[in-house]
Amino acid sequence: MSTIAFDAAAVETGTGQVLLHPLTLTLTQRRVAVIGANGSGKSTLLRLVDALQLPTAGRVHVDGLDTRAEPAAIRSRVGFVFTDPAAQLIMPTLREDVALSLRRSVPRRERAARAAGVLDRFGLTALADRSVFDLSAGERQLGALAVVLAVDPTVLVLDEPSTLLDLRNTLLLRRTLADLDQQVLLSTHDLDLAASCERVLVLEDGAVIADDAGPAAVAFYRRRCAEQLSPGAPGSPGSRSGGPG
Ligand SMILES: Nc1ncnc2c1ncn2[C@@H]1O[C@H](COP(=O)(O)OP(=O)(O)OP(=O)(O)O)[C@@H](O)[C@H]1O
To answer: For residue 8, what pLDDT is reported?
Structure first.
């Protein structure tokens, strides 16, 4: 299993806004989820792992590789699935996109068969040659996952992978992730998916406020949200705190 290590890793904008407070932890579990409110810093944390975002302080390592010093080696190891499949799919069809992602690792004569196998695994064979613009959002999201998994990354990072999926495809995604050999780090608002992970980080305002096994962390997060919405809690609807006198 891989090791993702955050060593006082922090992210600040050029204007001094803190997106992620210094974070020190080591992730070695097979399935790790990051949950939290909109804007709490989940995507920022995930992007550090693939060197899409470099820490403005501290370090991030994947299997000993420093994301700052070796971004290319990091990216060949870490597959990143974006929330928006349009950010991932660049070819006219899924078949071409999967074949493109295989161009560095698979000889040309073997690419077609490999691409067909990957698409079949996700139930995408019937859609493989259709224009990606004619696919539904959920079909594109599954396609983007297939494109990234085709090259067999060591670590798979997924930013809200089930946002666009219907129940059947959500279950397909869950089963696919459960069966993978790779280490998986994902952010999600799907608390059932989070609860099925071995370890869950709960983020709030750019800081980890809980770090626990799936069900315990999800229960903590539910309580936290309920407390914040209860009458009189700071920031809750109807709360007068912070408002004009
Ligand atoms: N380059 C940037 N400059 C200023 N603020 C930024 C920048 N990038 C992100 N942010 C802000 O940082 C906060 C965290 O963003 P992030 O995308 O990590 O949140 P998130 O937890 O993934 O949210 P969501 O659940 O809505 O996807 C947000 O308030 C966002 O607006």
So the answer is: 97
The full set of domain ranges for the chain reads: 4-229
Q: Are strands 155-159 and 183-187 parallel, antiparallel or unpaired?
A: parallel
The answer for residues whose C-beta is within 8 angstroms of residue 205's C-beta and 6 or more apart is 40, 41
Structure pTM?
A: 0.89
Rounded Cα–Cα distance for residues 40 and 45 (Å): 10
The verdict on the CB of residue 43 being under 6 Å from ligand 1 is yes
Per-residue pLDDT tens for 45-69?
999 999 999 999 999 999 999 999 9
Question: What tokens were used for 10?
Answer: 């922090």
CA of 187 to the centre of ligand 1 (A): 13
Separation between Cα atoms, residue 139 and residue 238, nearest integer Å: 41
The Cα–Cα gap between 143 and 118 comes to: 10
Site of tokens 């219907």 = 166
Nearest atom of ligand 1 to the alpha carbon of 83: 27
**What ipTM was reported for this prediction?**
0.95
Classify domain 4-229 at the CATH topology level. Rossmann fold (3.40.50)
Looking at residue 117, the DSSP 8-state letter turns out to be H
Tell me the C-alpha to C-alpha distance, in Å, between residue 15 and each of 19, 20, 22, 231.
11, 14, 17, 35
C-beta 52 within 6 A of ligand 1: no
Atom 16 of ligand 1, residue of closest alpha carbon: 41
| pLDDT tens digit sequence for 107-150 | 888 888 989 998 998 889 999 999 999 988 888 888 999 999 98
- CA 121 to ligand 1 centroid distance, Å: 33
User: What pLDDT, on a 0 to 100 scale, did the predictor assign at position 235?
Assistant: 57
